[in-house]
Design goal:
10 helices; about 30% helix
Length: about 325
Amino acid sequence: MTALLTVRGLKKHFPVVAGLMRRQVATVKAVDGIDFTVPQGKTVGLVGESGCGKSTAAQASIRLLEPTAGEVIFEGRNLADLKAEELQSMRREIQVVFQDPLLSLNPRKTVGDALVEPLRYHGIESDPDALHAGACELLELVGLSSNAVNRYPHEFSGGQLQRICIGRAIALRPKLVICDEAVSALDISVQGQILNLLSDLQKELGLSFVFISHDLSVVRHICDHVVVMYLGKVMESAPTEELFAQPRHPYTQALLSALPRAHPNKKSERILLKGEIPSPLNPPSGCPFRTRCPYAEPRCAQTPPTQEPSDRHKYHCILT
């Protein structure tokens, strides 16, 4: 299967400065050497607790944040090597849908203007009639009426606004769309509609997705592959059904144990994690989860989760 995006050894560290001289006194290791691959036409989920580095990893992958180290290969080209002009051209192929649709849209512009803004910015279209027709087409593509083209963001519901943001993201017909908690601010019923819309657009336009979420039930519905992150590192990575059926890392097992039961008579044991998440300023050595892991042994302080030689993107705990 052809890889559209390949991330190798990605790191994003933020300096902590203090004093009048603004000297660096520490480093926040938000993302600390992760690998993942997004195949053509597939959806890869990045999951984990808040603050684990999911969004930072995605933004560093496409250079919305400059990575500290690592390689990001998109269609055979390393994004870290691209100059500003080349990167701007490459951004036509990669788009982002953020969590809060209301904050993503300019309240002073109509949704029609918002939808065609990428076409204007990249110099693809400037004719007013063609832009109006394009906005109407995008609205219908995401399940809204073209009559809404001259309305303003405050006139729409949250689900409708997210549809508009998705329409703007696909206006340039990109190959990769990053959905950063794109449904977490929506009601459950609306979440399902947006997920179905994303699936339909993927089939129709051949899109690939990086889907960031803390909701594993949503991830199971839409993702082909799941990458589980904790404290800036990957704990486990596997095909979706395999990960849900047989999670290998204790952290993944704890996350899955919190999911609602499919049937009230089905027995399930909740794994309660003790202690606080360590600070990324001073993460634990070895496996970063060892301070909260119920199965931790002394060797976990020296050895991180290992990678199988047959699949460098599949991690599992040294204790399994």
